[in-house]
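I'll show one example:
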Amino acid sequence: MASGPGMDFESFVRARTPALSRTAYLLTGDAHLAEDLVQTALFKAARAWPRLSGDPEPYVRRILYTQNISWWRSRRHLTEQPLGGYDAAAAERSDPALRVSLEEALARLTSRQRTVLVLRYFEDLTEVQTAAALGIRPGTAKSLTRQALARLRTLAPELAELAGHPPAEEVAR
């Protein structure tokens, strides 16, 4: 069931909460924070619901992204929790070694780096769309993406191998 114009809030929440929760988990790296993030986004969306026109999902997702960054800024001094198994159904379908390596590497990225990668590669947004969602310039989104990918390659070179790509040094030969 897709979101769309004329959809009531309760139907939207029932239909889209699982997808929003997966994205929130990838953004936060913590199941409890992800739940809080989704609830905050839905609360803010509920207040604005009568004024929304068209598809409400982009509006709700932007709240997720910006709220996560706001929380990250306010809790910089805290140690982030490692990623754990939140989406059991997806975990059963994926390669466990790849999933563990990816979760560990993502947990070691900054919140901004993780957010950009989630938007670009999980949400499948373009650089321009990612920049708009985060309220930054496209060049900044591109730079953050490049930095995050470079850091992932450094933190977890085994990801390229597990994903079926040769390590960077083999490509260079």
